[in-house]
Amino acid sequence: MITLKTPYLLFTGDAQNRVNAKTATGIADFKPENCLGYYGLPEATLELDNLPKLSIKDAAAQGAKTFVIGLANSGGFIADNWVPAILEAIELGLDIASGLHKKLEDVPEIKNAAEKHGVSLHNVRHCTTELVTGSGNKRTGKRILTVGTDCSVGKMYTALVTEKALNNAGKKAHFVATGQTGILVAGSGIAIDAVISDFISGAVEMISPDIPEDEFQVIEGQGSLFHPSFAGVSLGLLHGSSADYIIMCHDPSREHMRHLPDYPVVSLKECIERNILMGSLTNPNIKCLGIACNTSSMPEADAKAYLEKISNELNLPATDPFRFGAESLITELC
Amino acid sequence: MITLKTPYLLFTGDAQNRVNAKTATGIADFKPENCLGYYGLPEATLELDNLPKLSIKDAAAQGAKTFVIGLANSGGFIADNWVPAILEAIELGLDIASGLHKKLEDVPEIKNAAEKHGVSLHNVRHCTTELVTGSGNKRTGKRILTVGTDCSVGKMYTALVTEKALNNAGKKAHFVATGQTGILVAGSGIAIDAVISDFISGAVEMISPDIPEDEFQVIEGQGSLFHPSFAGVSLGLLHGSSADYIIMCHDPSREHMRHLPDYPVVSLKECIERNILMGSLTNPNIKCLGIACNTSSMPEADAKAYLEKISNELNLPATDPFRFGAESLITELC
After folding, report:
1. Which terminus has fewer CB within 10 Å in chain B: N or C?
2. H or E element at residue A290
3. pTM of the model
4. Which residues of chain A does B243 touch, with a Cβ-Cβ cutoff of 8 Å?
């Protein structure tokens, strides 16, 4: 399992908006306490409201331990104009963490500088942890897994706000990251879609070990049992988590499964039932806490009407956690 | 995808029996046409009935292209006393193929000799192929996937005898290997449990491409939808294969899921229904051709009575393909 040293200096590169730097903004939104501040190149126009802008030198002097590349570009490569800043951070003794597809050490100057200065390069999208196959064993404590009707429907976001809602309600809850952005936010985890397939459930068991009986792990789901490209990952995650509870994540504006126009989105009812059916192998008591929808495509009144409709149809709480909070999802746990 | 050059020289090492050299015996049983012969160390007592015993030198002179390590040991390592024979084969220009867990190049003498003589080292349990994620697209031709109630219940064996039965019946059928022994038998394939989990279904799509409409691919299954350690692999394989047909493999003597005493073996009926349910995502016309049982624990009369009973209960053909052939499984295809 990757574990990153905190505090972070977030690198926003040449970002012009939040989408360019969605990793940095995700960390700033959910774990500002892990960050000293952020550093952007002179050409960047993005500003993060809740963190100070720092030079790399000042951040190092204040004790920054990891320089987190907060950008996502298509292709997932390290842009040439980011390299001088990365090298400066290395020279000042900071580890580097990246959620990009390309590995940091594939840039020779970065590799050489890291060796010279004895810092670690963390490629959180890649898995180097020694893993074992899953055991199917139950662990102590309670586990909540966010699942979805499709990819990219808010499973990480929902897990993070559920963690926060539980903590706000006086419960001890821990977010468990299974994807690259989640790992950078949480500071630890395993990118489940990057492990060797034999070890999917074993890796999930490793990152969600025994906890006290009255505590919660909120595990970030991946993919969907109904996505032909990634359902194997989703099933291994479901089995490895031994989920006591699932939260179903959904985007009502999605017209077909992501990148697959021939595959319509499954109904919420069928998707919930199928996750319960398949998840019951490793936890016969698995149940659904509710539905988390991304209603950003709807005016607020329409969103509320839609959520009320599906809540009544499925006899489960339904919310848009970004707009209306996640409290309704955890009512029965508090 | 790994593709091995034929003909092979099978290496039986110091094997005392068929179990020690189950890879070699599997290849000799199913693809003797790919083999020039076999070579065992002086201390080996195992003999293969249908192939000549050859020295490495004679095999090389007769045109052997790949020296296949036909042994499986617990731990999956390259035993010290196998190394001189491997080095001799390399010096004579043969590629080396291994289904062991440890990589051939992890033995420095083997790595150095292979570089010096320009031969390939194939570690078929490892996947180095560049893969893409699954598309969920249908391909032309028909696909049969062997699935199972558990691991190690005869899915490779059943796929190979089904291929043979179809070919004997005048159909064109091709075995598609997804595990290390299957790859060595077939000479090509991808070890699905060794691919990065994001690519499970994509890898299966790659090894089962379009074929003429009247031909068959018989795809070797892995694991079980009901095995908590490996169900993700099984589901990715089911989706990636877009199976038109499944054959359910079962060992009636199995008391619990392999290595997991707390997990009872699922019923045949439930396992067939679940594979149909999950497989229908990528092929709504998926159906079960029948049941292939390993009845080696029963006297012949008991085995026949058992097969008749389950055939009647499930209204499907049921056979032990080793004892009674696979013809009954393919009746409706011929």
Report:
1. C
2. strand A287-293
3. 0.94
4. none
**Touching check for B76 and chain A: CB below 8 Å?**
no
| Highest CATH level, class, for B142-333 | alpha beta
**Contact residues, A window 179-238, toward B, CB-based 8 Å cutoff:** 192-198, 200-202, 225-226, 228-237
Same fold, A2-123 and A142-333: yes
pLDDT 10s digits, A36-82: 999 999 999 999 999 999 999 999 999 999 999 999 887 789 999 99
B287 CB contacts (<8 Å, ≥6 apart)?
Answer: B244, B245, B246, B276
Q: Which residues in chain A are contacts of B237 at CB distance < 8 A?
A: 232
Interior/surface letters B278-298, b for 16+ CB within 10 angstroms, e for the rest: bbebbbeebebbbbbbbbeeb
Chain B residues touching residue A236 (CB < 8 angstroms): 197, 231-233
* pLDDT single digits (tens) B251-289: 999 999 999 999 999 999 999 999 999 999 999 999 999
A128-179 pLDDT, tens digit per residue, is 889 999 999 999 999 999 999 999 999 999 999 999 999 999 999 999 999 9
What are the extents of the domains in chain A?
2-123, 142-333
Q: Which of B129, B130, B198, B201 to mutate to test the interface with A (most CBs of A within 10 A)?
A: B198
Task: Label residue A19 by pLDDT band (50, 70, 90).
Answer: confident
User: Is this prediction's ipTM beyond 0.90?
Assistant: yes
| Helix, strand or coil, per DSSP, at residue A116 | helix
- Specify the residue for token string 């995700």: A26
Answer yes or no: CATH 3.40.50.720 is held by domain B2-123.
yes
- Closest CB to A198 among B194, B202, B262: B194
Task: Tell me how far apart the alpha carbons of residues B204 and A201 are, in angstroms, rounded to a whole number.
Answer: 20
Q: Identify all chain B residues contacting A261, using CB atoms and an 8 Å cutoff.
A: none
Indicate whether A13 pLDDT > 90: yes
CA closest to B203 among chain A residues: A229
Euclidean distance between CA atoms A236 and A241, whole angstroms: 8
